[in-house]
Specification:
Elements (H helix, E strand, L loop, with lengths): L3 E7 L3 E8 L4 E8 L10 H13 L7 E8 L7 H14 L5 E6 H9 L5 E6 L3 E7 L2 E7 L11 H17 L7 H8 L7 H14 L8 H10 L3 H21 L5 E4 L1 H4 L3 H14 L4 E2 L3 H14 L5 H8 L9
Parallel strand pairs: 1-4, 4-5, 6-9, 9-10
Antiparallel strand pairs: 1-2, 2-3, 6-7, 7-8
Helix pairs in contact: 1-2, 3-11, 4-5, 4-6, 4-7, 4-8, 5-7, 7-8, 8-10
Organism: Actinoplanes oblitus
InterPro entries: ATPase_BadF, ATPase_NBD, Euk-type_GlcNAc_Kinase
Protein name: BadF/BadG/BcrA/BcrD ATPase family protein
């Protein structure tokens, strides 16, 4: 059987894994719940193990020569905790090849670009910008988590939607469709504003912070329907993200990642337009973080960066020779 590698992208809400051959053909995929120590809750090694097992399926584990596992929240103080969880999951899966861990930034940048230099702008559960030189993370801005930063992220948007809904309920804020959208999302059937507000509090505090990011698409939909409060939240999110990018950018090779920027909606449109105005080049989407991790693993094994055509095959991106 052909030699293979594994790539893992462990996010706050979803962990994704791919198995790929050294020529960039994906032969297995697996998913599981989030594996972020700061916002997912639960046991990291368990989520990693489920994703690995699903991707491996009937694959001969002895053919897996190496792997890269990347995760949000694995920088700084979280590095050793994630490394320990990754090592445990790797061993439990019966894998004996070389395994290494990186942050979600390396994985996302590698998913969007085969080039070693550029800037990543990420807005999913969290948000940040990062500059890469020679494939190495040189500088980052934000990414401080839902409590202290992540400005413009899905959780940032969700929290502001909740604040706006509560303010509309108790009379402090403007009328907004979020006053009806949020109770419907949480299956709240109370009639009195006070009862609805208390139920919203109970639901919001009962879930991990990462789950509040699921309110971002609802906020975007409300903005698309013309709700002024939701529109203002989305516009402010885009401003925050572009400001974060400006702190590090601009760069001709800009990669965007995360659900807020990859899915259609008012924030994605505004940010993409802003990046195009700044760089005169459309940003490259990081479509498959796990495949980006696999590309890094192939590079580690072969000692050379993955060629653009192979990168496109592996990640599902579009190879544009004019950008090489």
């Amino acid at each position: 059987m052909s030699a293979m590698v594994m790539g893992v992208d462990a996010g706050a809400t979803t962990t994704r894994c791919v198995v790929a051959t050294l020529d960039g053909v994906v032969v297995g995929r697996g998913t599981a719940g989030g594996a972020n120590a700061n916002s997912s809750g639960g046991e990291m090694s368990a989520a990693l193990g489920l994703a690995l097992a699903a991707a491996l399926g009937t694959v001969d584990r002895t053919a897996v020569l190496g792997g890269i596992l990347g995760a949000a929240g694995s920088a700084g103080a979280g590095r050793e905790r994630f490394r320990a969880a990754a090592r445990q999951a790797w061993q439990d899966a019966g894998l004996r090849g070389e395994m290494d861990t990186v942050t979600d930034l390396e994985v996302a940048f590698a998913a969007g670009s085969a080039e070693p230099d550029g800037v990543l702008l990420l807005a999913g559960t969290g948000a940040l910008a990062a500059r890469f030189w020679g494939g190495v993370l040189d500088r980052r801005c934000d990414g401080y988590g839902w409590l202290l930063g992540d400005e413009g992220s899905a959780v940032w948007i969700g929290i502001r939607a909740l604040r706006a809904g509560l303010a509309a309920l108790d009379g402090r804020g403007e009328a907004t469709v979020l006053r009806e959208v949020l109770p419907a999302y949480f299956s709240i059937e109370a009639d009195r504003n006070e009862d609805v507000a208390q139920a919203l509090l109970a639901r919001a505090f009962a879930v991990p912070p990462a789950e509040l990011g699921r309110l971002a698409p609802l906020t975007g939909e409300a903005a698309e329907r013309g709700d002024p409060v939701a529109t203002a939240i989305c516009a402010r999110a885009a401003e925050k993200l572009l400001h974060t990018y400006d702190t590090i950018g601009p760069a001709r090779n800009t990669v965007i990642a995360g659900s807020v920027l990859l899915n259609p909606g008012p924030v994605s449109r505004a940010v993409r337009a802003g990046l195009l105005a700044r760089t005169a080049t459309p940003p490259r989407p990081a479509l498959d973080g796990a495949a980006g991790a696999a590309a890094l693993a192939i590079g580690r094994l072969t000692g050379a960066p993955v060629p653009p055509v192979m990168h496109a095959r592996l990640t599902g991106s579009t190879h544009d020779p004019n950008r090489e």
